[in-house]
Design goal:
The relative contact order is 0.20. By secondary structure, the chain is mostly helical. It has one domain. The protein has a two-stranded antiparallel ribbon.
Length: 140
């Protein structure tokens, strides 16, 4: 069985996305003056669509370079939600999954399945979303 579920971005995802679109880095990419950053921008936007914590982790990582255009996004994230007060580290507070539309859908689906059945499920996805933002599930 295959199910396709379209997910709208959460308010947090929209805010970070708009922040990126208004950045100098995005303007440079759209003007074509810096084509070398296109792949990293696409990868970062895919991370944002999967869950904003992935951007949060990239911004706070000491290993990765912050992707241009996502500087100063810390103010968008609720304090302590992803790191227990230690930037880029620690556990996750209750409700973190709802800040990403796809993870919110997954959490709600699993909660319903757990409440209504004793079935065991495997959710497998090679690519979580296509270009229209649809989440694809396959059950075997």
């Amino acid at each position: 069985m295959i199910e396709v579920v379209c997910c709208k971005m959460t308010e947090l995802q929209k805010a970070v996305y708009c922040h990126y679109l208004e950045s100098k880095a995005a303007r440079r990419l759209l003007q074509g003056s810096k084509a070398t950053g296109v792949l990293s921008a696409i990868t970062a936007l895919k991370k944002l669509c999967n869950h904003p914590k992935l951007i949060y982790d990239s911004v706070h990582s000491k290993v990765e370079d912050v992707v241009e255009g996502f500087e100063c996004v810390e103010s968008f994230f609720p304090p302590g939600l992803f790191d227990n007060g230690r930037a880029g580290r620690g556990g996750l507070a209750a409700g973190w999954e709802a800040l990403g539309s796809k993870m919110g859908v997954v959490a709600r689906m699993l909660e319903l399945l757990h409440a209504r059945t004793n079935d065991r499920w495997v959710a497998r996805s090679v690519q979580l979303a296509d270009s229209s933002g649809c989440l694809t599930w396959a059950q075997r």
